[in-house]
Amino acid sequence: MSQRDDFEGFAASKEYGTPHFRVEIPNSSEGSIAIIEDFGFAEERSSEEKRAVLPKKIWSKIAQEVATDFNTRIKARKLPVGKWSLGTVKVERLLGKELCVLAWAIEFIDPKEIDQAIARWKALRPEERWWLFTMTAAEGGRFQNSSFGWRAALRSAIGGVIKEETIKKPTQKKRTFLNPELPLLKHAGLTL
After folding, report:
1. Whole-number mean pLDDT of the chain?
2. Are 91 and 23 contacting, i.e. CB atoms less than 8 angstroms apart?
3. What is 128-181 written as a DSSP string?
C-alpha cells in the first residue's frame, strides 16, 4: 500500500484505533448531521464523544466551503482529497476540531448569516481554530452543552452578525473637568 492508500475521507488514517472525527450524514433530507470525536483506543477500549449536531439545511450551506478549505491543505500534503457523502465520513483529528469550531459557531444562527460566519472561520489560522476547540471542549464540548461558556462566545465571535440598526449609539454629554482658562499644571496643584 502506498502512503496515499493509508488514508480515507478527509485525510483520516485507516490505521485501526487511530483518533479521528466522524461526520454522520443521514439519507433523509430532514435528518441532522452528527459530528463525533472518536478517541481511538485508550486502554484497549474505544471511546467517543458526540460534539455537534447540525440540521441538514445548515450543513448544506457549509459543506462545500469546509471541503474546499480542507482539501486545499490535504492536497499540499500530497494526499487524496475528501468529499462528503451519505453515511459516515472520517475526518483527520485536527481537521475535525476545526469543523467543530464552525459547527458550534453556527448551530443556532439564522441561515442567512452563515456566509459571514464562514468568512470569519476561514480568516482564522488552523492553529487558532485548534486552540478555540480546546478551550471550548474543556467547558462545553458535548453537543448538549450549547448554551454557555465558550460555545456561546463562539456564536458571538464567529457566528454573530452585527447589524447597524441594532447598535445603540451612546449619547455623549459634554463634560468639562478642567477650567480651560487655567493652565493644566495649576489644576493638578502644581506650579512652576
Report:
1. 82
2. yes
3. HHHHHHHHHHHHH-STT-TTSHHHHHHIIIII----GGGPPPPP------S-TT
